């Protein structure tokens, strides 16, 4: 399936214009990378997430993590020092890679750690106070009336 029909969504939604292109690019990107390197996306808490990527054989200085315009990009490129090795069998993939993750609004990367060949990127969703739901209390009190004085009109009549 190459295309998804989102026209029913557009009938009752405003501001989701880029959703179709986002889905298309995600589907295309998943096919082109061939699933390398494998990764997990985990929900830690209500507003905390973690992305874990299997980067066996890569050193920290061979990895690059960047965020720009709501897209988290993780790149890996092996140093040229391994070219002189002579393998009888090479089953560990040391090829360069680039993985992109689209981040929702207000999701920010907090830190990244590498342990036992796994790169873990921690994310948190911090909704600004102005965007959080607010409870509006209904007060009891005296009615105030606004008097309208039309002295000028009464005198003219």
Helix-strand blueprint:
Blueprint (H helix, E strand, L loop, with lengths): L6 H5 L7 H15 L5 E7 L2 E7 L8 E6 L2 E6 L20 E6 L4 E9 L2 E8 L25 H6 L1
Antiparallel strand pairs: 1-2, 2-7, 3-4, 4-5, 6-7
Organism: Kangiella marina
Keywords: Stress response
Family: Belongs to the small heat shock protein (HSP20) family.
Features:
157 residues, alpha+beta, Immunoglobulin-like, 2 domains, four-stranded antiparallel β-sheet, three-stranded antiparallel β-sheet, 3 helices, 17% helix
Structure, explained:
With 157 residues, the protein is of the alpha+beta class. It folds into two domains: 1-34; 36-128, Immunoglobulin-like, CATH 2.60.40. 17% of the residues lie in helices and 31% in strands. The strands form two sheets. A four-stranded antiparallel β-sheet has the order 1-2-7-6, with no helix packed on it. It has a three-stranded antiparallel β-sheet with strand order 3-4-5. A hairpin with a 2-residue loop joins strand 6 and strand 7 (118-125).
Number of domains: 2
Query: Helix tally?
Result: 3
What's the architecture of the largest domain in CATH terms?
Sandwich
The CATH topology assignment of the largest domain is Immunoglobulin-like
Order of helices and strands: HHEEEEEEEH
Largest sheet: 4 strands, antiparallel
The total of beta strands comes to: 7
Mean pLDDT: 80
Strand content: 25-35%
Unreliable sequence segments: none
CATH top level label of the largest domain: Mainly Beta
Radius of gyration: 28 Å
Main structural class: alpha+beta
Give the N-terminus to C-terminus distance in angstroms. 78 Å
* Helix residue percentage: 10-25%
Side by side, the strands of the main sheet go 1-2-7-6
Q: What is the overall silhouette?
A: elongated
Keywords: Stress response
InterPro entries: A-crystallin/Hsp20_dom, ACD_IbpA/B, HSP20-like_chaperone
Domain SHSP: 30-141
Region (Disordered): 136-157
């Amino acid at each position: 399936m190459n295309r998804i029909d989102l026209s029913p969504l557009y009938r009752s939604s405003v501001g989701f214009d880029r959703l179709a292109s986002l889905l298309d690019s995600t589907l295309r990107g998943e096919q082109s990378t061939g699933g390398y390197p494998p990764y997990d996306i985990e929900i830690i808490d209500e507003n905390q997430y973690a992305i874990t990527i299997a980067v066996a054989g890569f050193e920290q200085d061979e990895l690059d993590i960047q965020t720009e315009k709501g897209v988290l990009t993780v790149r890996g490129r092996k140093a040229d020092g391994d070219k002189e090795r002579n393998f009888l069998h090479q089953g560990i993939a040391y090829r360069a890679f680039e993985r992109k993750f689209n981040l929702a609004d207000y999701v920010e990367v907090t830190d990244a750690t590498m342990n036992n060949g796994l790169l873990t990127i921690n994310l948190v969703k911090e909704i600004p106070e102005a965007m959080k739901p607010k409870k509006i209390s209904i007060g009891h009190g005296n009615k105030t009336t606004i008097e309208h004085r039309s002295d000028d009109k009464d005198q003219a009549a």
